[in-house]
């Protein structure tokens, strides 16, 4: 996913486009996450310098979390495992730096509602304030990987959990999840938070 082999400038622009869109809502969300554009650029450069062609291995992700976050060391391994499952779609053993940045932000910045909104934006690829079509498929596949399953070899229990998850949202089973419905439903249901782990283990 994302820019696989671009220059620093191209990679940074891609992540800034995702994290800092020029609308009031995105700007407010960025403030809620406690980040300025300057902070993001310094942070991104520090992480990029550790990467290999814009990709991070599991060992590199563990080192970044250990050195650059104040998370409980006992949870870091669990979090990195989960980020790898969600974003390593091609099972290459590495994660695109842009995807890692999103996961890192979700686990280290902002209050619970901000994290839930940010999670929605991770899956709302075209920014139309709804998750539909291929976006729902990608979200379902990410959940399957979180459950230790494989989208190519789906076991019954995991499939049931995904269907139950989608069924919690108005219209979810019909192929569309709207932003406000996603936020309200996840905030009201701790089981959904668990399915979307690891992003909420440090929620306020």
Verbal overview:
One of its GO terms (molecular function) is calcium ion binding. The structure is a single chain. With 204 residues, the protein is mainly alpha-helical. Helices cover 61% and strands 6% of the residues. It folds into two domains: 10-107, Recoverin, domain 1, CATH 1.10.238; 112-199, EF-hand (Recoverin, domain 1, Orthogonal Bundle). It has eleven helices and four strands; from the N terminus they run αααβααβααβααβαα. Helix 1 packs across helix 6 and helix 4 packs across helix 5. The chain is globular, with a radius of gyration of 16 Å.
Counted up, domains total 2
Corresponding CATH architecture of the largest domain: Orthogonal Bundle
Name the CATH class of the largest domain.
Mainly Alpha
Q: Report the count of strand segments.
A: 4
Morphology call: globular
Rg estimate, integer Å: 16 Å
Main attributes of the structure:
EF_Hand_1_Ca_BS; myristate; 204 residues; disordered N terminus; 2 domains; 11 helices; two-stranded antiparallel ribbon; two-stranded antiparallel sheet; lipoprotein; Recoverin, domain 1; mainly alpha; calcium ion binding; single chain
């Amino acid at each position: 996913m994302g820019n696989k082999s671009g220059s620093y400038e191209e990679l940074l622009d891609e992540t800034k486009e995702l994290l800092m869109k020029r609308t009031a809502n995105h700007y407010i969300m960025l403030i809620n996450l406690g980040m300025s554009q300057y902070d993001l650029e310094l942070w991104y450069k520090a992480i990029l310098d550790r990467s290999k062609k814009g990709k991070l291995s599991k060992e590199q992700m563990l080192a970044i979390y250990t050195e650059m976050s104040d998370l409980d060391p006992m949870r870091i391994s669990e979090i990195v495992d989960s980020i790898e499952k969600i974003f390593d779609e091609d099972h290459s053993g590495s994660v695109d730096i842009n995807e890692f940045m999103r996961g890192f932000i979700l686990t280290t910045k902002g209050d619970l509602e901000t994290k839930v909104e940010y999670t929605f934006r991770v899956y709302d690829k075209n920014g139309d304030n709804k998750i539909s079509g291929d976006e729902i498929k990608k979200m379902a596949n990410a959940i399957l990987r979180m459950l230790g399953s494989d989208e190519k070899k789906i076991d019954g229990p995991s499939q049931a959990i995904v269907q139950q998850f989608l069924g919690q949202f108005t219209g979810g089973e019909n192929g569309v999840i709207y932003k406000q419905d996603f936020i309200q439903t996840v905030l009201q249901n701790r089981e959904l938070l668990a399915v979307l782990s690891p992003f909420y283990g440090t929620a306020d």
